[in-house]
Amino acid sequence: MTAQPEGAAVEDSFAGRCVLVVSTNYAPEHTGIGPYSTQIAEHLAASGADTHVLAGMPHYPAWEVAQGYRGRWRLRERRGGVTVHRRRHTVPPRQTAAHRALFEAGILAHGTLAPPRIRPDVVLTQMPTLAGGVLGGRLARRAGAPHVVVVQDLMGAAAEQSGIRGGGRAAALAAAVEGRILRGAAVVGVVHASFVDRVTAMGVPRSRVHVVPNWTHVQGPSGDRERTRARLGWQPGETVLLHAGNMGLKQGLEVLVEAARLADQDAAPVRIVLMGDGNQRAHLQQLAAGVSALSFLPPAGADEFPDVLAAADVLAVTQKASVLDMSLPSKLTSYFMTGRPVIASVAAEGGTAQEVLRSGAGTVIAPEDPKALLAEVRALADDPAWAARLGARGPHYVEERLSSRAGLERITGLLRLATAGR
After folding, report:
1. 155, 197, 233, 257 - which has most CB atoms within 10 Å?
2. Could you give the CA distance from residue 257 to residue 272 in angstroms, rounded to a whole number?
3. Predicted pLDDT of residue 321
4. What's this model's pTM, rounded to 2 decimal places?
5. What would you measure as the largest C-alpha separation in the chain, in angstroms?
């Protein structure tokens, strides 16, 4: 797809037309998929489209319904010029295949029983949930409208690779449903090239599949780095390795706990920080009992998040060794903006490793290897010039490839392809 001027192309195509975005995650969630769905919808609304969103109740990354939304069954609200139709669903406290099935069933059942009373000209589904994909396809068919799917996570692969309890049995079913959704879509976007082969193997023609990378949805750091470190209790002489975001199964964050345990045995001052929330947080805190080099922080607010990232010396992205092509961590787009080097403890053949290496902003080490992780942190601390070179490449990569303007244009390009001639 060739890039066009951002405003005019969208206005010509969608001004006065009705667009429905289906995304379980939406604002006020400010990490994960929610910010992307929000920016897409608000961009379309600002360009003249009558934009609606079918969403769940805010719950990510804590996996707990946010204050102000608890006890609500259905809700219609206006946010940023967008009409948001919220439907209640189950929010599992633990991630197992059975709990995930209940989560998906709740989204599907309520969305089917009470769909938005609109007739969209095009439906765009963000698909980290199978239920969202099924709903988007049904609503598109009912309206006689094209269905565009953006694959953020491959759910069949996720069940197979993430280590979720019972996932092996669920993988085949999830992949079958996922394939049916994608084959029925007019256009399919994938957030990384490593997804393409798996999607086409489901029977989706290659001509319908387009790579649409996520973009950086946060601003660069603006505060005083030393003041932020002091506020967080980080000492001037210690090297801080920070992991920010969801604490789930696929991240394999135990490697950071064990690396911190090793750091306790060494005189070199290294602090490892886990910032965020998720269904594995309590388990990790229990595992880390007595480990002094490890600390936990709650999720940072959207306004302070970039400054906290930039206050660290090194940023970590971790995944279990089994995770190859099921997802691309959305945190990477934020990491690259900070000017700090990234260590990726991930499978070398996976999409996350490819993205970090392509950016030039970090290094890739073997997953689930705490000794290698700690050694890489120390190597960066011992060579500040190398760390600075790596960190400086991140913002350049964002400017060249991951700007919000470029990302939103890629998404609206998918919508134009789907509606061409209509």
Report:
1. 155
2. 8
3. 87
4. 0.80
5. 67
Give residues with Cβ within 8 angstroms of 352, minimum separation 6: 317, 319, 323, 328, 329, 332, 344, 346
Query: Residue 1: pLDDT band by 50, 70, 90 thresholds?
Result: very low
Give the 3-state secondary structure of residue 310: helix
Residue 293 and residue 296: Cα distance in Å, rounded? 10
Give the model confidence (pLDDT) of 308-319 as tens digits: 999 999 999 999
Contact 137, 111 (CB under 8 A): no
Average pLDDT on 188-192 reads: 94
| Cis before 28? omega within 30 | yes
Residue 13, pLDDT > 80, answer no
Residue 158: helix, strand or coil by DSSP?
Answer: helix
Q: What residues does 314 pair with on adjacent strands?
A: 241
Query: What pLDDT was estimated at residue 290?
Result: 93
CA 128 from chain centre, in angstroms, equals 9
- The 10s digit of each residue's pLDDT in 212-246 is 999 988 888 887 899 999 999 999 889 999 999 88
Nearest residue to 412 via CA among 143, 120, 9, 49: 9
Instruction: Report phi then psi at 392, rounded to 5.
Output: -65, -25
Which bin fits 364, alpha (ψ -120 to 50), beta or left (φ > 0)? Answer: beta
> Which residues touch 176 (CB under 8 Å, ≥6 apart)?
156
245-261 mean pLDDT: 92
CB 24 within 8 A of CB 132: yes
Beta carbons of 157 and 351 less than 8 angstroms apart? no
Q: Coil, strand, or helix at residue 7?
A: helix
Q: Given the DSSP bridges, would you call strands 82-87 and 74-79 parallel, antiparallel or unpaired?
A: antiparallel
Tokens of 336: 């690259």
Tokens 């193997």 sit on residue: 201
Cis peptide upstream of residue 93 (ω within 30 degrees of 0): no
Q: What is the 3-state secondary structure (H, E, C) of 115-163?
A: CCCCCCCEEEEECCCHHHHHHHHHHHHHHCCCEEEEECECHHHHHHHCC
The full 3-state SS of 355-369, as one line of letters, equals HHHHHCCEEEECCCC
pLDDT in tens, 362-396: 999 999 999 999 999 999 999 999 999 999 999 99
Question: What letter would DSSP give residue 66?
Answer: P
Phi, psi of 297 (to 5 degrees): -125, 150
Q: Provide the phi-psi class of 59: left if phi over 0, else alpha when psi is between -120 and 50, else beta.
A: alpha
Which pLDDT tens digit goes with each residue over 126-150?
998 899 999 999 999 999 999 999 9
Q: What is the DSSP letter of 181?
A: H
